Amino acid sequence: MKKTTFYLIALLALMITSIGAMAQPGGLNPLVGSTHKYSVTPGGANTLAWTVSGSAYSISGEATQTATITWTAVGTYTLTFTETNLTTGCKTIKESTIVVGANTFDVSTSAPLSNCNTATGVPNYSGTTATTPVTFVINMTTSSTWSPNWEFTFTLAPSSGSIANVKAGSTSLTAVSGTYKATGLTSAPGTGNGTVNITMDFTGNITSTNTIDMAITSAKELQYNTPDRDNTDWTTSQTINAIPNTTAITTD
What we know:
- The chain has one helix at residues 2-23, and strands at 35-39, 47-52, 57-60, 66-71, 75-84, 91-100, 106-109, 113-116, 129-141, 150-158, 162-168, 171-172, 180-185, 193-205, 210-221, 235-241.
- It folds into 2 domains: 24-100, Sandwich (Immunoglobulin-like); 106-241, Sandwich (Immunoglobulin-like), CATH 2.60.40.
- It is built from 1 helix and 16 strands.
- The protein is rod-shaped, with a radius of gyration of 27 Å.
Protein backbone atom coordinates (compact mmCIF):
# COMPACT_ATOMS: atom_id res chain seq x y z
CA MET A 1 0.00 0.00 0.00
CA LYS A 2 2.81 2.42 0.91
CA LYS A 3 4.58 1.62 -2.38
CA THR A 4 1.40 2.26 -4.34
CA THR A 5 0.85 5.58 -2.59
CA PHE A 6 4.46 6.58 -3.24
CA TYR A 7 4.18 5.76 -6.96
CA LEU A 8 0.90 7.66 -7.25
CA ILE A 9 2.44 10.74 -5.63
CA ALA A 10 5.51 10.48 -7.87
CA LEU A 11 3.31 10.12 -10.96
CA LEU A 12 1.20 13.12 -9.97
CA ALA A 13 4.32 15.24 -9.43
CA LEU A 14 5.64 14.18 -12.83
CA MET A 15 2.34 15.12 -14.49
CA ILE A 16 2.30 18.54 -12.85
CA THR A 17 5.92 19.14 -13.89
CA SER A 18 5.15 18.04 -17.45
CA ILE A 19 2.12 20.33 -17.70
CA GLY A 20 4.21 23.27 -16.48
CA ALA A 21 6.97 22.44 -18.96
CA MET A 22 4.48 22.16 -21.83
CA ALA A 23 3.06 25.56 -21.02
CA GLN A 24 6.46 27.25 -21.24
CA PRO A 25 7.05 28.88 -24.62
CA GLY A 26 10.20 27.92 -26.48
CA GLY A 27 11.51 27.03 -29.90
CA LEU A 28 9.19 24.03 -30.26
CA ASN A 29 6.18 25.81 -28.71
CA PRO A 30 6.66 29.48 -29.66
CA LEU A 31 4.12 32.27 -29.34
CA VAL A 32 2.89 34.37 -32.23
CA GLY A 33 5.36 37.18 -32.91
CA SER A 34 8.29 35.52 -31.11
CA THR A 35 11.70 35.01 -32.71
CA HIS A 36 13.73 31.82 -32.19
CA LYS A 37 17.01 30.37 -33.42
CA TYR A 38 17.28 26.78 -34.71
CA SER A 39 20.70 25.17 -35.16
CA VAL A 40 22.42 21.97 -36.26
CA THR A 41 26.03 20.87 -36.51
CA PRO A 42 26.62 20.01 -40.19
CA GLY A 43 28.36 16.79 -41.16
CA GLY A 44 30.78 18.57 -43.47
CA ALA A 45 31.28 21.35 -46.00
CA ASN A 46 27.99 20.63 -47.73
CA THR A 47 24.92 22.47 -49.01
CA LEU A 48 22.59 23.50 -46.16
CA ALA A 49 18.93 24.43 -46.39
CA TRP A 50 16.13 25.20 -43.90
CA THR A 51 12.49 25.07 -45.01
CA VAL A 52 9.18 25.48 -43.20
CA SER A 53 5.74 24.23 -44.17
CA GLY A 54 3.15 26.97 -44.53
CA SER A 55 3.78 30.69 -44.97
CA ALA A 56 3.10 32.38 -41.61
CA TYR A 57 6.72 33.09 -40.68
CA SER A 58 9.81 35.00 -41.71
CA ILE A 59 13.23 33.37 -41.86
CA SER A 60 16.86 34.37 -42.21
CA GLY A 61 20.00 32.23 -42.38
CA GLU A 62 18.20 29.48 -44.29
CA ALA A 63 21.43 28.43 -46.06
CA THR A 64 23.50 28.30 -42.85
CA GLN A 65 23.66 26.02 -39.83
CA THR A 66 21.53 28.42 -37.76
CA ALA A 67 18.19 29.76 -38.95
CA THR A 68 16.35 32.61 -37.24
CA ILE A 69 12.56 32.39 -37.53
CA THR A 70 9.79 34.76 -36.45
CA TRP A 71 6.41 33.02 -36.19
CA THR A 72 3.41 35.10 -37.24
CA ALA A 73 0.30 32.89 -36.89
CA VAL A 74 -1.08 30.13 -34.67
CA GLY A 75 -0.66 26.67 -36.18
CA THR A 76 1.42 23.52 -36.50
CA TYR A 77 4.43 23.66 -38.81
CA THR A 78 7.14 21.27 -39.97
CA LEU A 79 10.66 22.68 -39.78
CA THR A 80 13.03 20.81 -42.08
CA PHE A 81 16.81 20.98 -42.34
CA THR A 82 18.49 19.33 -45.36
CA GLU A 83 22.22 18.80 -45.76
CA THR A 84 23.34 17.68 -49.22
CA ASN A 85 26.74 16.17 -49.94
CA LEU A 86 28.38 18.32 -52.61
CA THR A 87 30.07 15.34 -54.27
CA THR A 88 27.49 12.56 -54.15
CA GLY A 89 24.23 14.45 -53.84
CA CYS A 90 23.24 12.25 -50.88
CA LYS A 91 21.08 13.99 -48.30
CA THR A 92 20.46 13.98 -44.57
CA ILE A 93 17.11 15.39 -43.51
CA LYS A 94 16.16 16.46 -39.97
CA GLU A 95 12.64 17.54 -39.03
CA SER A 96 10.91 19.10 -36.03
CA THR A 97 7.25 19.84 -35.40
CA ILE A 98 6.64 23.42 -34.30
CA VAL A 99 3.36 24.25 -32.55
CA VAL A 100 2.80 28.01 -32.50
CA GLY A 101 0.42 29.23 -29.79
CA ALA A 102 -1.49 32.44 -29.19
CA ASN A 103 0.53 35.33 -27.78
CA THR A 104 -0.20 35.85 -24.06
CA PHE A 105 2.30 38.67 -23.45
CA ASP A 106 0.57 41.97 -22.72
CA VAL A 107 1.80 45.30 -21.37
CA SER A 108 -0.77 47.92 -20.33
CA THR A 109 -0.91 51.35 -18.71
CA SER A 110 -2.90 52.48 -15.70
CA ALA A 111 -6.27 54.19 -16.12
CA PRO A 112 -6.28 57.99 -16.42
CA LEU A 113 -5.86 59.64 -13.02
CA SER A 114 -6.02 63.12 -11.55
CA ASN A 115 -4.78 64.87 -8.44
CA CYS A 116 -4.25 68.36 -7.08
CA ASN A 117 -0.90 70.06 -7.37
CA THR A 118 1.19 70.27 -4.20
CA ALA A 119 0.15 73.86 -3.50
CA THR A 120 -3.32 72.66 -2.58
CA GLY A 121 -4.29 73.45 1.01
CA VAL A 122 -1.03 75.26 1.78
CA PRO A 123 -1.75 78.57 3.60
CA ASN A 124 -0.37 81.60 1.79
CA TYR A 125 1.53 79.49 -0.76
CA SER A 126 4.30 81.64 -2.19
CA GLY A 127 5.06 81.44 -5.88
CA THR A 128 3.10 80.72 -9.03
CA THR A 129 4.42 77.22 -9.75
CA ALA A 130 4.63 73.95 -7.81
CA THR A 131 6.40 70.63 -8.30
CA THR A 132 4.02 67.68 -8.06
CA PRO A 133 5.02 63.97 -8.02
CA VAL A 134 3.27 61.91 -10.71
CA THR A 135 3.08 58.10 -11.04
CA PHE A 136 2.03 55.89 -13.95
CA VAL A 137 1.60 52.17 -13.21
CA ILE A 138 2.62 49.76 -15.99
CA ASN A 139 1.42 46.14 -15.79
CA MET A 140 2.62 43.06 -17.64
CA THR A 141 0.73 39.75 -17.84
CA THR A 142 1.45 36.41 -19.49
CA SER A 143 0.34 32.85 -18.93
CA SER A 144 0.71 31.88 -15.26
CA THR A 145 3.67 29.53 -15.83
CA TRP A 146 5.78 31.97 -17.85
CA SER A 147 7.54 34.82 -16.03
CA PRO A 148 9.94 36.53 -18.45
CA ASN A 149 12.03 39.66 -18.21
CA TRP A 150 10.57 42.46 -20.32
CA GLU A 151 11.02 46.01 -21.55
CA PHE A 152 9.05 48.85 -23.08
CA THR A 153 9.59 52.32 -24.51
CA PHE A 154 7.33 55.31 -23.96
CA THR A 155 6.90 59.04 -24.45
CA LEU A 156 5.66 61.76 -22.08
CA ALA A 157 3.91 64.91 -23.25
CA PRO A 158 2.96 67.61 -20.69
CA SER A 159 0.37 70.15 -21.82
CA SER A 160 2.60 72.86 -20.30
CA GLY A 161 5.24 73.10 -17.62
CA SER A 162 8.06 70.58 -17.41
CA ILE A 163 8.89 67.08 -16.17
CA ALA A 164 12.10 65.86 -14.51
CA ASN A 165 13.54 62.91 -12.56
CA VAL A 166 11.80 60.23 -14.64
CA LYS A 167 12.33 56.77 -13.11
CA ALA A 168 11.26 53.17 -13.64
CA GLY A 169 11.12 51.92 -10.08
CA SER A 170 14.45 53.06 -8.64
CA THR A 171 16.16 53.30 -12.04
CA SER A 172 16.58 56.76 -13.57
CA LEU A 173 15.60 57.07 -17.23
CA THR A 174 16.84 59.53 -19.82
CA ALA A 175 14.95 60.40 -22.98
CA VAL A 176 16.68 59.64 -26.26
CA SER A 177 15.03 61.46 -29.18
CA GLY A 178 12.05 62.03 -26.89
CA THR A 179 11.60 58.34 -25.99
CA TYR A 180 12.30 56.70 -22.63
CA LYS A 181 13.24 53.02 -22.32
CA ALA A 182 12.67 50.79 -19.28
CA THR A 183 14.43 47.46 -19.76
CA GLY A 184 15.39 44.33 -17.83
CA LEU A 185 12.13 44.45 -15.88
CA THR A 186 11.23 41.28 -13.98
CA SER A 187 8.04 39.36 -13.28
CA ALA A 188 7.03 37.33 -10.26
CA PRO A 189 8.11 33.67 -10.76
CA GLY A 190 5.21 31.34 -11.45
CA THR A 191 2.60 34.10 -11.72
CA GLY A 192 3.12 35.51 -15.20
CA ASN A 193 2.74 39.04 -13.83
CA GLY A 194 5.02 42.05 -13.54
CA THR A 195 4.58 45.69 -12.67
CA VAL A 196 6.66 48.85 -12.57
CA ASN A 197 5.92 52.41 -11.46
CA ILE A 198 7.04 55.20 -13.77
CA THR A 199 7.52 58.24 -11.56
CA MET A 200 8.45 61.82 -12.29
CA ASP A 201 8.25 65.38 -10.97
CA PHE A 202 6.00 67.80 -12.83
CA THR A 203 6.45 71.56 -12.42
CA GLY A 204 3.69 73.86 -13.62
CA ASN A 205 1.48 76.83 -12.87
CA ILE A 206 -0.58 76.25 -9.73
CA THR A 207 -3.76 77.96 -11.01
CA SER A 208 -3.80 76.15 -14.38
CA THR A 209 -4.99 72.62 -15.03
CA ASN A 210 -2.21 70.55 -16.62
CA THR A 211 -2.10 67.10 -18.16
CA ILE A 212 0.68 64.62 -18.91
CA ASP A 213 -0.01 62.18 -21.73
CA MET A 214 1.87 58.89 -21.65
CA ALA A 215 2.12 56.60 -24.68
CA ILE A 216 3.90 53.25 -24.84
CA THR A 217 5.59 52.97 -28.23
CA SER A 218 6.89 49.38 -28.05
CA ALA A 219 6.94 46.45 -25.63
CA LYS A 220 8.49 43.00 -25.71
CA GLU A 221 9.69 40.15 -23.53
CA LEU A 222 13.41 39.60 -23.68
CA GLN A 223 13.93 35.82 -23.73
CA TYR A 224 12.29 35.10 -27.09
CA ASN A 225 11.83 38.65 -28.41
CA THR A 226 8.03 38.36 -28.26
CA PRO A 227 6.17 41.64 -28.87
CA ASP A 228 3.03 42.75 -27.05
CA ARG A 229 -0.05 40.97 -28.43
CA ASP A 230 -1.82 44.32 -28.98
CA ASN A 231 -1.41 48.05 -28.47
CA THR A 232 -4.97 48.95 -27.49
CA ASP A 233 -4.04 49.70 -23.86
CA TRP A 234 -0.86 51.71 -24.37
CA THR A 235 -2.02 55.29 -23.72
CA THR A 236 -3.14 57.12 -20.60
CA SER A 237 -2.91 60.52 -18.95
CA GLN A 238 -2.60 62.25 -15.61
CA THR A 239 -4.36 65.51 -14.80
CA ILE A 240 -2.81 67.91 -12.29
CA ASN A 241 -5.72 70.01 -11.16
CA ALA A 242 -5.41 73.71 -10.47
CA ILE A 243 -6.07 75.40 -7.16
CA PRO A 244 -8.36 78.46 -7.07
CA ASN A 245 -6.67 81.71 -8.05
CA THR A 246 -7.61 83.44 -4.79
CA THR A 247 -6.13 86.79 -3.86
CA ALA A 248 -4.42 87.53 -0.58
CA ILE A 249 -6.54 88.71 2.32
CA THR A 250 -7.01 92.45 2.37
CA THR A 251 -8.51 94.64 5.04
CA ASP A 252 -9.66 98.25 5.46
